[in-house]
Every structure is written in structure tokens, then in C-alpha cells.
Amino acid sequence: MLRYIFLSLFALLLLTACESSDTDTSSKELDSVFENSMGKRITNKPHVLQFLNQSAPKSCPGCDLSNSDLSQQNLAGANLANANLSNTKLDRANLLGANLADANFFNASLIEANLTEANLDRAHLNSANLTRAVIQDTDLFRANLHKSILHEANLSGAGLYGANLTKAHLTKTNLTRADLSHTHLYQATLNYAILKYAKLTGADLTKSGFFNASLIEANLTNANLTGANLTGANLHGAWLDNVVGANFTGAKNVHEKYLKD
Predict the structure, then answer these.
(1) How many CB atoms lie within 10 A of CB 124?
(2) Hey, is 52 helix, strand or coil?
(3) How many degrees, rounded to 5, is the angle at CA 249 between CA 242 and CA 257?
């Protein structure tokens, strides 16, 4: 009889231990499933989920959303001023009219993102990938776009006054009517770019490349073109008064008054 009671108690204790172990394992598995299902760039950050679960327009100024995956999310009108979005994936995200002033997008991916009419004043976009992004009529006052990738992006009408575009990649980028006054475009690549009616007054274009670019009626007054490659560039009607160091060899439609003897 005693032996039967002892065995029953032992079995009960063993069953309880197994249930406790199963509960712990289940909890760990849930975390693992969440991380794997969301992709390797996501970490299990409750505040990221809380942000995404907000009703529109979302608001999280100054928050840390770094190393997250916000691809294809609707963030139109969101307030992310001064937020940390470094290394975050925002491919095809909708950021129409969003407040992104002073936000950190270092090394972020914004491929084909919609940034139309967003506020990116003083934003840090260095090394960010904005390939084919729509950045039309967007404010980028003194933004840092050092080494950013803007291939085939649409920046028509964008305000880039004083922005840092040093070594930026702007091949086939649309900069029609964009304000690039006093921007830093040192060693930037603008081959095949469209800069019709763009304002480049006082811009630093030293050693930049404009191969086959369209600069029709662009305003380059007081710009520094030392070492710039203008081969094949169309400068029909462009304002070139007081430009520094320009070499128009190979350029097209340069008004005769700007050509040196």
C-alpha cells in the first residue's frame, strides 16, 4: 500500500514538472516564431508593434525604430520627428506628408518609398538607399545625404537648400525645378540626371559628374564647377554667370557668352 502511494506521488510530481517545462518551452517558441515570421531584420520590440498598431496618423517622435522592418507600411502623415530609423527597412512604405525632421535614416532602405511632401529638414540620410523613391515637393533643408543612393528617384520640386549630397549617387534622378542652392555635391554622380529649371546657385559641384545630364534653363550662377564632367550635358538656356572653374568641353548648347576664347 505504501509503495502504491509513493509511486502515485512520484508520478504526480513528474507530471507537474513536465507541464512547467512545456509552458516555458512554449513561451520561448512563441518569441522565436514571431522573429522568424517577421524576418531576420526584426527584433521583438514591443514599442515597434505598439507604433504599428496605432491608428492613422501614427505618432512616435524621438522613438527608437532602428533595425526594424516597416516595409510597405502606411505611415502617411506620421510624426517621426527626431526618431531613430537607422538600418530600418522602409521599402515601398507610404510616408506621404510625414514629419521626419531631424530623423536618423543612416543606412536605411527606402527603395520605392513614397516621401511626397514629407518634412525631412536636417534629416540624416547618409548611406541610405532611396532608389526609385518618390520625393516630390519634399523639404530637405540642410539634410545629410552623404553617399546616399538616389538612382532614378523623383525629387522634382524638392527643397534641398544647403543639403549635403557629397558623393551621392543620382544617376537618372529627376530633379526638375528642385532647389539645390548652396548644396554640397562634391564628387556626386548625376549622369543622365534631369535638372531642367533646377536652382543650383552657389552650389559646390566640384568633381561631380553630369555626363549626358539635362540642365536646360538651370540656374548655376556662382556655382563651383571645378573638375566637373559636363560631357554631353545639355545646357540650353542655362544661367552660368560667375561660375567657377567650368570646363564646357563636350557640353551641348552652351551660350557663346560663357565660352572662353
Answers:
(1) 21
(2) helix
(3) 40
Contacts 24+ apart (CB under 8 A), 86-95: 87/41, 89/41
Tell me the per-residue pLDDT of 100-155, one tens digit each, with 9 for 90 and over: 999 999 999 999 999 999 999 999 999 999 999 999 999 999 999 999 999 999 99
Contact in structure between 213 and 194 (CB atoms under 8 Å): yes
Task: Give the list of residues 6+ apart from residue 99 with CB closer than 8 angstroms, or none.
Answer: 61, 78, 79, 80, 81, 118, 119
pLDDT in tens, 173-221: 999 999 999 999 999 999 999 999 999 999 999 999 999 999 999 999 9
Q: Which 3 state secondary structure label does DSSP give 11?
A: helix
CA–CA distance, 6 with 16 (Å, rounded to integer): 16
pTM (two decimals): 0.83
Determine the 3-state secondary structure of 7 from DSSP: helix
Q: 58: closest CA among 104, 110, 95, 109?
A: 95
- DSSP code string of 88-135: -B-TT-B-TT-B-TT-B-TT-B-TT-B-TT-B-TT-B-TT-B-TT-B-
The CA–CA distances, whole Å, from 83 to 65, 76, 99 equal: 7, 15, 10
Identify the DSSP state of 144.
B
Please tell me the distance from the alpha carbon of residue 126 to that of residue 123, in angstroms, as a whole number.
9
